[in-house]
Amino acid sequence: MYPRLKYFFLFFTVLALNAQKSQTSNIATALEKYGLTEQRIISENDTVVYYLKAYTTKPDKLVVFIQGTDPFPIFFNHRSNGELTPTKTFNSDYRLLDSTYAYAIVAKPGLSGIFQKEGFTVPKKYHDKNYREYRVAQIDASIDDILENHMVSPKKVVVYGHSEGAQIASSLALKNEHITHLGFWSGNVLNNFYEFALFERIAALKGQQNDSTAHENIMGLLGWYQSIITNPNSTEMDNWGFTNKRWSSYEEAPLNNLLKIDIPIYTLFATLDESTPIETAYLLPVQFLQKRKNNLSFNLCMGCDHSYQKKNANGMESQWEDEFKKFISWTDL
């Protein structure tokens, strides 16, 4: 039995969505609506699909976004009044960039194209290949393909990832030598299971549970962790909709990778994040100072949740666009 995790990832409820790729899907309609093109890298054993901002003149700068943990395709079809309307599952950051920028997002395994939202089920290929090494390889190949075929004299290659995507980005920056700037947005800094345990202790300190319950839950976490490392390559799904292979691939603390990187790093954390504890985020500037490294920009979204939503008098307001603008301005410094 897994422990009760009060502050786990935001998206568990969406895993209850169910279904198959729509037979009436029209990816061309979605691409035209959002000003994107679909690109494929076909090899003997695999096909990597990425979506690129449409251009008329080849740009000389590239921005690549890496999605977090949600098992979503790039596009959904939503049925409304008997008609299918395409929607996208990522923010419109690319619309904030001028024509000198290429912008790309790489589809997760098994999730390229467009899916019917009503009755969506996550395909088996996603579960089989949803682990860090595979996603790093996908995006690494996509960057090389874009630089070779869609750009002229590249001046800057910016990669930023959010949540799980931040962990992937920290590994990717050590692999792809073309990357010039790294954005690490709301990724966990330490081992996932330590941070889950930290949330349990925080809940006890806030009086939301007693010490005994917190300890019991943490011991359950350790038992869960043990079961993963005992069978690290299993692709059977657990109660959270993930596989041991996925969990074990993120076992290394991202802090260790970040300290090995010498290009400029822009970190962004949210002070009211319910998925990534802000308490461990401060380890980054401390460790960079200890290692005498000066390539870290440490930034906070004050009063924001994991998705950079901030409460105001009218409800929740997204700060994502403002944060992205700050990030891109930083890459020009």
Describe the structure concisely.
The protein is α/β, with parallel strands linked by helices. It contains eleven helices and 13 strands. The N terminus is likely disordered.
Description:
- The chain has 333 residues and is an alpha/beta fold.
- The protein is 34% helix and 22% strand.
- It has helices at residues 27-34, 124-129, 132-149, 164-175, 192-205, 211-230, 244-249, 254-258, 278-281, 283-290, 320-331; strands at 36-42, 47-53, 61-66, 75-80, 83-88, 101-106, 114-116, 156-162, 181-185, 265-270, 296-301, 309-312, 315-318.
- The protein has an eight-stranded mixed β-sheet, with helices on both faces. Strands 5-4-7 form a three-stranded mixed β-sheet. The chain has a two-stranded antiparallel sheet with strand order 12-13.
- Helix 4 links the parallel strand 8 and strand 9 (181-185).
- Helix 3 (132-149) packs across helix 4 and helix 5 (192-205) runs antiparallel to helix 6 (211-230).
- The longest helix is centred in the middle third of the chain and has 20 residues, at 211-230.
- The radius of gyration is 20 Å and the shape is globular.
- It starts with 26 loop residues before the first helix and ends with a helix.
Using the CA coordinates, give the radius of gyration.
Answer: 20 Å
Strand order of the largest sheet: 1-2-6-3-8-9-10-11
Net shape: globular
Calculate the terminal CA-CA distance, rounded to whole Å: 50 Å
**Quick check: average pLDDT?**
92
Count every helix, treating DSSP H or I runs of 4 or more residues as helices. Answer: 11
Helix content: 25-40%
Secondary-structure element order, N to C:
HEEEEEEEHHEHEHHHHEHHEEEH
Tally of DSSP β-strands: 13
Strand content: 15-25%
**Structural class assignment:** alpha/beta
Q: Detail the poorly predicted runs.
A: 1-24
The main pleated sheet reads as: 8 strands, mixed
